[in-house]
Amino acid sequence: MKPDVKTAMANLIKEARERLPFDFPFESNGEGRCEECPFKLMEFLDMDLCDWEDRLKRGDTPNLGDVHRLARDCKEIYNLLVKKGFIGSAPISSEKERNRYK
């Protein structure tokens, strides 16, 4: 059975927090294209995740488009971090792998 939309959003947020290296000390030196800056992308995504965490706590219900958009953003940022070599191409599944990026 598929989860309801609130549960799907909460699961997506949890997975994003576990798989993406939010504590990695990215350099914010302004080189290259701004839309590919890992520091700014992670900052943007963290703000979006925090917003949805707060909204879920207040009882707001996301729609499927909200879940899809956040999932797409997470996937695009993940793929960019893989492309730039900040994380490996395999999903980060173990505690040891997650701690490697802290």
Task: Give the key terms.
disordered C terminus, single chain, 102 residues, mainly alpha, 60% helix
Q: What are the SSEs and their pairings?
A:
Blueprint: H1 5-19, H2 38-57, H3 64-83, H4 95-100
Helix pairs in contact: 1-2, 1-3, 2-3
What is the typical, i.e. mean, pLDDT? 83
* Helix and strand sequence: HHHH
Radius of gyration: 14 Å
Beginning-to-end CA distance, first to last residue: 35 Å
Helix content: 55-70%
Instruction: Tell me the quaternary state.
Output: single chain
* Shape call: elongated
Number of folding domains? Answer: 1
Largest sheet: none
What percentage of amino acids are in beta strands? under 5%
Tell me the total number of β-strands.
0
Provide the structure class: mainly alpha
Unreliable sequence segments:
92-102
Number of helices: 4
Could you explain how this protein is built, in words?
By secondary structure, the chain is mostly helical. The protein has one domain. It contains four helices and no strands. The protein has helices at residues 5-19, 38-57, 64-83, 95-100. The longest helix is centred in the middle third of the chain and has 20 residues, at 38-57. The chain is elongated and about 35 Å long. It starts with a helix and ends with a helix.
Summary, kept brief:
Helix 1 packs antiparallel against helix 2 and helix 2 packs antiparallel against helix 3. It contains 4 helices and no strands. It has 102 residues and is mainly alpha-helical.
